[in-house]
Amino acid sequence: QVQLVESGGGLVQAGGSLRLSCAASASLSSIKAMGWYRQAPGKQRELVAAITGGAGTNYADSVKGRFTISRDNFKNTVYLQMNNLKPEDTAVYYCNVETSFRVYWGQGTQVSVSS
Fold it and tell me: Do residues 7 and 109 touch, judged by C-beta distance below 8 A?
């Protein structure tokens, strides 16, 4: 019944910015962490950024200083602000929510960065 709906992907030039949103269709209980993963063609899915239930954050070294993860509990939404985008950021980005019972995934949104 619970779905994570992503939005905000698109095509931008290097140096540009995008803001990804991931909204849950219903409130989730016992959330351990929320995060964003990405998967480029021919590569494994990798963690980009995560935020814990206590609001602590963690970022991949490749995006540190450029990306910011945040959440809005009132809107049941997690965001990923991406600044100074690089061509190597091109991938499908997936929202992830881990609870004490299961893991939820968004449908994925394409981010393409041209040089």
Answer: yes
